[in-house]
Write a structure and sequence with these properties.
By secondary structure, this protein is mainly alpha-helical. The protein has four helices and two strands.
């Protein structure tokens, strides 16, 4: 929730995948992005950038490790991924 006009809480917008995107993400990968967004670690603009980067840089299904590579998360397999800037 974010603060709206007059201090009222309003729900954050949530990205809905189009049919052409839906089949690209594994459930685990999409759930990870939703979690980052809902926790406030990614705002709506950053989420869009991550989705665009992932869909541009990876062919086929997008797995959790692919998203972690884009975000530069050190917990991805291999651990020495070079991050792709999202801004």
């Amino acid at each position: 929730m974010t603060e709206g006009i007059d201090g009222y809480s309003v729900p954050r917008p949530m990205r809905v995948l189009g049919p052409h995107e839906r089949s690209r993400f594994t459930a685990e990968a999409w759930g990870y992005l939703v979690g980052l967004s809902r926790s406030g670690l990614l705002d709506a603009t950053e989420l869009e950038h991550v989705i665009e980067r992932v869909l541009t840089h990876f062919d086929g299904r997008v797995a959790l490790t692919d998203i972690r590579l884009v975000l530069g998360d050190g917990s991805s397999e291999g651990g020495d991924a070079s991050p792709i800037t999202t801004h």
